[in-house]
Amino acid sequence: MPTAIEICNVHKTFRKKVRALRGVSMRVDHGQIFCLLGPNGAGKSTLVKILMTVIHASRISGTMLGRPIGHKATLRRVGYLPEHHRFPIFMTAEQALHFYGALSGMRRRARRRRIDAMLDLVGMTGWRKHRVGTFSKGMQQRIGIAQALLHDPELLLLDEPTDGVDPIGRREIRDLLVQLRDEGRTILINSHILSELETICDQLAVVVKGRVSLEGTVDELTSGRRRWVVAYEGAGPEWIEEETRKDGRLTQVMLPGADAAEVQPIIDRIRQAGCTITAVSEVRESLEDLFMRALVLAGEDEGSTPGAAKGEDA
Amino acid sequence: MSIWIAILAILRESWLTLRAEKLFKVVLGLNVLVIVAYMSIGFDDTGVSLFFGLTHVESEFVQSGSPLSRTLYLGIYSAFIINLWLAWAASILALISTSSIFPSFLREGAVELVMSRPTRRVTIFFVKYVGGLLFVMIQVGIFTLGAFLAAGWRIDVWDPAIFLAIPLVTLFYSYLFCVDVLVGVITRSTLTALLATLLFWFGTFGIHTADDLLSANLRRMEESVSRAENRLEELASERDVATAEGETSEAADAAHWMTGPQEEIEALNNALGQLRPWQTTIEAIRFVIPETKRTLALLHRSLERNMEVSLTDLMTGAAFQDEDEPPRQPDDDEIVQRKIIERDNEIPAWRIIGKSLIFEAAVLGLALWIFQRRDY
Ligand SMILES: Nc1ncnc2c1ncn2[C@@H]1O[C@H](COP(=O)(O)OP(=O)(O)OP(=O)(O)O)[C@@H](O)[C@H]1O
Ligand SMILES: [Mg+2]
């Protein structure tokens, strides 16, 4: 699979010895939704800004869309939604989109056509002549997404795209991302709302205090950690009691790492005990579980406080 | 090709920023008001009419068609309208308007959206810079067009040198604007940039004025010294002649009179000795800072070609002298004033502008360097 982004050993130290990135390496495959996770201040936004040449890395090697990081012309093929972005408040939605489209090198005709399409896509057509400064947070976020997609990029870097967006909008964005991926685009998304990413995430990396603590495809990371949940009604047999969770009359038993065949005899035994099986389902490890695992992997003191590492490296 | 699309977009964004702040229109309105006031000055057979004839000042010298009327009208343009209005009031207004260009552009959240584009940072920087200067250029352009028409109408002088105000005022403004940009890039604060620029401006103004006055006074004192030395020599030779001829009392008289100039020379040399280190310091500072005052004075220099009578003669009254009257003695202030003008006129234009542009290039270079390397 061709890679969209491949970076190796990225370091960034801000003033006052704030070590935001301490040797990050990762690979984003083409046509995937890649989720960049991590606690506050882990360095996620910093990493994205480095890819977009907004911040200069202290040290970096790698490529984006086949060109070295920092190659300006490549950015024409990349869409970016910064976190906490602000538009020039005196511009109307349409003017702002024209501005950003032109900065990405789009001609006027193409801009007009795409702006109509994008405003429609984010449901803001009725607001095109209004000043962005008067928009609500979620409305601004929608314009931000329109702006990132305007020049039809192959690669999208989205820093907390659903921040401030209402539930309907969130779902729309999620569906949009899946659609964009299915069109063959690569999306790197940075968000804290793990439940939202759960269904769409293909690959992920968890960054903790400027280091990648866990990385891979979701399948890779969760295989071998599958579990089966068997739910039943009635008082269960003794042997199962300590492992069960009682939820009123409904009881579940969790069977970690089990194969479907291994679960069958257990189901039989539960039924023999006079219980009614109400559900049997396979559960993958959730993103939240992965996130927590990454924190543990990173070490106790690393994941427990927000912000970057400071001072000299130990 | 696509770089031009980006350049136009950045210029347009600057324009929208300025327009949103409504200052463009306010400044333009005030400019038009000043030019209309200028146009309202006219000359007829008996003197000067003001405010389109609302009031009238009788004068036997300044009448329609007289050389003095031309000097007065063009002089009002270069000395008052340019030096006071455009160089002070309008420039402060322009600084207030354009100070926000860089800080608002570099606002957190907004800057990421721009820096993440294919357009290089250098391009963005210079387009933004030129955008600020364009603001001034357009304002001054409209303004000088008005002045050009006014001069043609009122004194029948169609002098394209009036349009020199466009590059000169823009140049003058750019000396200040580069400081504004530097502070704006560093602090990202409009107010700080504005205040720092005003401070810098008043500082340069102070240095220039101090240098002008000091060196003119020094020259005057040096002349006094040489006058006193001449007098001393005369007295010495008188004394020598008298001694040779044996006229002892006359020789003693001459020797007695010599103490006056001697004391004068000593006092002057003392004062000169005290002032010279100051002058050296001030000149050294002046060497570095841009020549705001002299750049604008270049306009006056070019306009004076068209005047039979210089503005200084007009202001001091020298122009009103009859030829048979005894020549009037200029007072001290006037001598100093003339010395300043004399000295400034000796400096070639390319040196005044070149030196200032070196300063500007250095400041801009620093601003660009910070702008380039900065993490946003
Ligand atoms: N421009 C900057 N100057 C100095 N320090 C910075 C700058 N930008 C980020 N940092 C520091 O770098 C560290 C990482 O910040 P970053 O914004 O990348 O975190 P993040 O992972 O995006 O966090 P969040 O989830 O809260 O958005 C933080 O400690 C922050 O204080
Ligand atoms: Mg962030």
Which helices and strands appear, and what pairs or packs with what?
The complex is a heterodimer of chains A (314) and B (376).
Chain A: E1 3-14, E2 18-29, E3 33-37, H1 44-51, E4 59-64, E5 67-68, E6 78-81, H2 93-103, H3 108-121, H4 137-149, E7 155-159, H5 167-182, E8 186-190, H6 194-198, E9 203-208, E10 211-217, H7 218-222, E11 227-233, H8 238-241, E12 244-247, E13 250-256, H9 260-272, E14 276-283, H10 287-298, H11 300-304, E15 309-310
Chain B: H1 2-20, H2 23-39, E1 42-43, E2 47-50, E3 55-58, H3 67-98, H4 101-105, H5 111-115, H6 121-155, H7 165-187, H8 190-245, H9 248-288, H10 292-304, H11 311-316, H12 332-346, H13 349-373
Helix pairs in contact in B: 1-6, 2-3, 2-6, 3-6, 3-7, 3-10, 6-7, 7-8, 7-10, 7-13, 8-9, 8-12, 10-13
The complex binds adenosine-5'-triphosphate and magnesium ion (MG).
- Tell me the helix content of chain A: 25-40%
Q: Please tally the helical runs of chain A, counting DSSP H or I stretches of 4 or more residues.
A: 11
Computed Rg of chain B: 27 Å
Rg of chain A, rounded, reads 23 Å
Descriptive key words:
heterodimer, A: 314 residues, alpha/beta, Rossmann fold, 2 domains, 6-stranded mixed beta sheet, 11 helices, 15 strands, globular, B: 376 residues, mainly alpha, 3-stranded antiparallel beta sheet, 13 helices, 3% strand, binds adenosine-5'-triphosphate, binds magnesium ion
How would you characterize the overall build of this protein?
The complex is a heterodimer of chains A (314) and B (376). Chain A has helices at residues 44-51, 93-103, 108-121, 137-149, 167-182, 194-198, 218-222, 238-241, 260-272, 287-298, 300-304; strands at residues 3-14, 18-29, 33-37, 59-64, 67-68, 78-81, 155-159, 186-190, 203-208, 211-217, 227-233, 244-247, 250-256, 276-283, 309-310. Chain A has 314 residues and is an alpha/beta fold. Chain B has one domain. Chain B has 13 helices and 3 strands; from the N terminus they run H-H-E-E-E-H-H-H-H-H-H-H-H-H-H-H. Chain B has helices spanning 2-20, 23-39, 67-98, 101-105, 111-115, 121-155, 165-187, 190-245, 248-288, 292-304, 311-316, 332-346, 349-373; strands spanning 42-43, 47-50, 55-58. Chain B has a 3-stranded antiparallel beta sheet with strand order 1-2-3, with no helix packed on it. In chain B, strand 2 and strand 3 (55-58) form a beta hairpin. In chain B, helix 2 (23-39) runs parallel beside helix 6 (121-155), helix 7 (165-187) packs antiparallel against helix 10 (292-304) and helix 10 runs antiparallel to helix 13 (349-373). The longest helix of chain B has 56 residues, at 190-245. Chains A and B meet through helix 2 of A and helix 1 and helix 5 of B. Magnesium ion binds next to helix 1 of chain A.
